[in-house]
């Protein structure tokens, strides 16, 4: 089980090489946003497959943006295999993204504060039988529009692109995407296929983040 102090190096050990790598990604994204003239953005982090370290990178990137003074909301949009709540030491009970999307609660009821200033979390919530349908519905668009009025950075932790259609559906709602690749594990053909799906969804691919590089 992931623990807050074990996983969030940006918060626990900001002088580490891992935290510096996250800051480099943060600066790259911020420069892209500035060049695009955007005050707020929805950014999706995804991977070709599950198990490539995407969730911990999303969590640490959220912490890094908050440390910079940005108002950040990070969302666990991996409704099939949620894990973001573990990184922040939260439970997945109560209202979450799936509960909002199916109309069981409103947005404010799903937003939870983290232990880090300026950083809020929306957990995945109860596992639905129809995640792709929920993510493609109007309430997803409404939620993201609402959050962009309150936060400068909205980060989406999505499912892997190749395992199911969820990430491809969600990509159309994002302003940009970063593809997380695990060094020495992710095959080049998988990366190419994932990029193809992102292109088809019409989301700008801001870059590829290499994870687990020694």
Structure report:
The protein is α/β, with parallel strands linked by helices and 214 residues long. 43% of the residues lie in helices and 17% in strands. The protein is built from 11 helices and 7 strands. It has helices at residues 4-7, 9-12, 17-36, 54-67, 84-87, 97-101, 107-110, 131-135, 138-150, 166-171, 188-201; strands spanning 41-47, 72-76, 112-113, 119-122, 153-157, 176-182, 205-211. The protein has a 7-stranded mixed beta sheet, sandwiched between helices. Helix 3 (17-36) crosses helix 4 (54-67). The longest helix is centred in the N-terminal third of the chain and has 20 residues, at 17-36. The protein is globular, with a radius of gyration of 16 Å.
Topology summary:
Blueprint: H1 4-7, H2 9-12, H3 17-36, E1 41-47, H4 54-67, E2 72-76, H5 84-87, H6 97-101, H7 107-110, E3 112-113, E4 119-122, H8 131-135, H9 138-150, E5 153-157, H10 166-171, E6 176-182, H11 188-201, E7 205-211
Parallel strand pairs: 1-5, 1-6, 2-4, 2-5, 6-7
Antiparallel strand pairs: 3-4
Helix pairs in contact: 3-4
CATH class type? Alpha Beta
Total count of domains: 1
Major β-sheet annotation:
7 strands, mixed
Mean pLDDT: 90
* Anisotropy-based shape: globular
CATH superfamily: P-loop containing nucleotide triphosphate hydrolases
Q: Indicate the radius of gyration in whole angstroms.
A: 16 Å
Number of strands: 7
| Helix-strand topology string | HHHEHEHHHEEHHEHEHE
Q: List the strand order in the largest sheet.
A: 3-4-2-5-1-6-7
**Helix percentage:** 40-55%
Count of discrete alpha- or pi-helical segments spanning 4 or more residues = 11
Low-pLDDT ranges: 1-5
Find the structural class using helix and strand composition.
alpha/beta
Tell me the quaternary state: single chain
Distance between the termini: 23 Å
């Amino acid at each position: 089980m992931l623990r807050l102090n074990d996983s969030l190096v940006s918060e626990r050990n900001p002088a580490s090489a891992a935290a510096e790598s996250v800051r480099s990604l943060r600066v790259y994204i911020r420069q892209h946003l500035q060049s695009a003239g955007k005050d707020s953005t929805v950014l999706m982090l995804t991977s070709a497959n599950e198990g490539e370290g995407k969730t911990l990178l999303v969590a640490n990137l959220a912490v890094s943006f908050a440390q910079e003074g940005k108002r950040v909301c990070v969302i666990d949009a991996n409704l099939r295999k949620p894990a973001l709540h573990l990184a922040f030491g939260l439970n997945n009970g109560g209202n979450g993204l799936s509960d909002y999307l199916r109309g069981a609660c409103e947005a404010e009821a799903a937003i939870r504060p983290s232990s880090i200033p300026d950083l809020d979390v929306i957990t995945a919530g109860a596992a639905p039988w129809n995640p792709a349908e929920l993510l493609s519905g109007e309430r997803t668009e409404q939620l993201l529009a609402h959050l962009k009025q309150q936060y400068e950075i909205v980060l989406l932790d999505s499912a892997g692109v190749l395992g199911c259609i969820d990430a491809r559906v969600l990509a159309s709602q994002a302003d940009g995407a970063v593809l997380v690749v695990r060094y020495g594990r992710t095959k080049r053909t998988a990366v190419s296929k994932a990029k193809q799906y992102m292109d088809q969804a019409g989301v700008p691919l801001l870059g590829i983040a290499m994870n687990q590089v020694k």
